Amino acid sequence: QAQLEESGGGLVQAGGSLRLSCAASGSIFSFYIMGWYRQTPGNQRELVATIAFSGSTNYADSVKDRFTISRDNAKNTVYLQMNSLKPEDTAVYYCHTLGTSAWGQGTQVTVSS
After folding, report:
1. Are the C-beta atoms of 65 and 58 separated by less than 8 Å?
2. Backbone dihedral angles phi then psi of residue 66, each to the nearest 5 degrees
3. What is the mean pLDDT of each run of 10 residues along the chain (113 residues)?
4. Cα angle 26, 32, 35; round to 5
5. Are 64 and 17 in contact (CB under 8 A)?
6. Residues with Cβ within 8 Å of residue 33, at least 6 apart in sequence
7. What is the SS3 assignment for the chain?
8. Is residue 3 a contact partner of residue 24, using CB atoms and an 8 Å limit?
């Protein structure tokens, strides 16, 4: 069964850093665009960043220059390095394989002021 599993969330002070990881089964990773999304209570899930198999990236304006998405194709893993975190970055972060129904279970990121 295709799976995505996130890790690395937690509580951090404003200005701090966290690194999220998402391990995927090969059938939903290779050659796919991978994305990180986030959601806060009462709001729709929003795109944070995407990365193609080639390494081409795309970011939401709100995280540009602070977050970096990367992938290790040999390990079927996608990462989200989050620096200069702000309280408004607090959310549940999800990993997703674009073009499929595959989503991770989510990992909570909480940034205290």
Report:
1. no
2. -120, -35
3. 88 98 86 96 97 96 98 94 98 96 96 96
4. 105
5. no
6. 50, 51, 52, 53, 97, 98, 99
7. CCCEEEECCEEEECCCCEEEEEEECHHHCCCCCEEEEEECCCCCCEEEEEECCCCCEEECCCCCCCEEEEEECCCCEEEEEECCCCHHHCEEEEEEECCCCCECCCEEEEEEC
8. yes
